[in-house]
Amino acid sequence: MTAIATRWRGRRRTGPGFGEGFDRRLIAPLVAGSLLNPINSSMIAVALIPIGVALGESPARTVWLVSALYLATAVGQPVVGRLVDRYGPRPLYLVGTALVGIAGTLGALAPSLGVLVAARVLLGFGTCAGYPAAMFLIRSESRRTGHDSPNGVLTILAVASQTIAVVGPALGGLLIGLAGWRTVFTVNIPLSLVCLVLGSRRLPRTPAPEREARGRRTSRVDLTGMALFAATLTSLLLFLMSPQFGHLSLLALTAAAATGLVVRELRVVEPFIDPRSFVGNVPMLATFGRNLLTYVVSYAFIYGFTQWLEGGRGLTPSQAGLALLPMFLTAIVVSTITGRHSAVRGKLLVGSAAQIVACALLLVVHSGSSIWLLVVVGLVVGVPQGLNSLANQNALYHQSDPARMGSSAGLLRTFMYLGAMVAAAANAAAFRHGATTAGLHHLALFMLCAAVPLLAATLLDRSLRRVGLPQETARP
User: Is 79 within 8 Å of 226 (Cβ atoms)?
Assistant: First the structure.
């Protein structure tokens, strides 16, 4: 970390909540890069129906625009995160954000759904570097400054990433209203340029600490482990996208690839994913599981409720986006108020309970429900939107091995995408015959099946009482 300290000495900026000496020049590129994925995940929600109408495709087929991005990012995030651990964040960040611009151009010119899906896959891979790079540099700055709990920076990252997932539909609806659905792809071109400028000017040109410690010697990347991981996750996600008896062979392929992955990683000196680190870190595994359940509910709501607002309630894309603004505002307020507090258990308890209340409210809405009731639903959903992701991110920061911060952050996002894929499959099943009120109620019951276990898992996890607390008070 000496190289980083030398390069940035004299240009550090400090402030309340950032930790003494934390380089605030890093915040803009880190936040901008981490936003690329959630903004593309959320804007597409209000574009699915317009795209289907324009291209003559059913909701069961346009859902591939959601699934394709999550399939690419779920596989790519841990892989890119491990490369960030090995080679530093700057090169991966710049290559990834350049791919986002290329994908935006491809989507803006796409003549068919197939080309749009290809653009979404490219977007998924392009957005993989932002979050692992951010978590890597936050950890690096914490080690350099001697402050191991930069709550202010983690809060900014969480607030920006998670609330943009809510403001995205409003932005998407506005863009579609102004110039059509292709604008949800075109907007990636200026976003990519902004990230490229910020990344090239502000991210340090330094190798990762792991490479410094080895005297800058090159070591082999575990490509076989990465390939087996990709095969495991791809076959699992393909099954989740269409869970049918005839697709059980995909689960067999998942089991075979996962077995090969474990056997391989136990034998190599520098594994892509070290199974031993997970066996000895049950709290981190629990955090991954909570993140999955959190996003099953979160994305089932964002995609399902938004489609119902248009198809079942009869709102325009712009109106549907505006109807979700209360959720965005609530999430920002909640995250800002609670973000500087390190303890995570209370946040998860309140957030998971609020998800259950939100699911119950969805069971009473119908095609004639007043706008005020829809606003109340958004306000309630905004509470877990502002709490759960922030708490899981902070928990991972304290539970992860510092040498694998990038890959651990990538895996946290992988479980987020697993949850999103499950949610997408649930949406497709619930709205098989259109975005009806009956379909929304079926979806709400499914969401309860994830929200209740999330609350139970939080109540039963005693390790959460110590996460984020000072060392002397964290002892049992």
Answer: yes
> Which pTM value belongs to this model?
0.72
Buried b (16+ CB within 10 A) or exposed e, 120-145: bbbbbbbbbbbbbbbbbbbbbbbebb
Q: What is the pLDDT of residues 88-101, one digit of tens each?
A: 888 888 988 999 99
- Backbone torsions φ then ψ of 23, nearest 5 degrees: -75, 100
User: Which tokens in the block code for residue 106?
Assistant: 């491809």
DSSP 46: G
Identity (one letter) of the amino acid at 9?
Answer: R
CA–CA separation, 139 vs 145, rounded Å?
Answer: 10
Q: How many other C-beta atoms can be found within 10 angstroms of the C-beta atom of residue 360?
A: 14
Q: Would you state the pLDDT for residue 423?
A: 86
pLDDT, position 265? 80
Contact status, residue 134 vs residue 142, Cβ threshold 8 Å: no
Q: Give CA 87 to chain center in angstroms.
A: 23
| Token reading at 47 | 């574009």
Q: Cβ(339)–Cβ(468) under 8 Å?
A: no
Residue (of 78, 35, 135, 77) closest to 397 by Cα position? 135
Taking residue 111's Cβ as centre, other Cβ atoms within 10 Å add up to 8
Radius of gyration of the chain (CA): 21
- Counting Cβ atoms within 10 Å, is residue 179 exposed (0-12), middle (13-18) or buried (19+)? exposed
DSSP, residue by residue, 49-100: HHHHHHHT--HHHHTHHHHHHHHHHHHHHHHHHHHHHHH-HHHHHHHHHHHH
| Residue 48 to residue 172: CA distance in whole angstroms | 11
- Cα(76)–Cα(128) distance, integer angstroms: 6
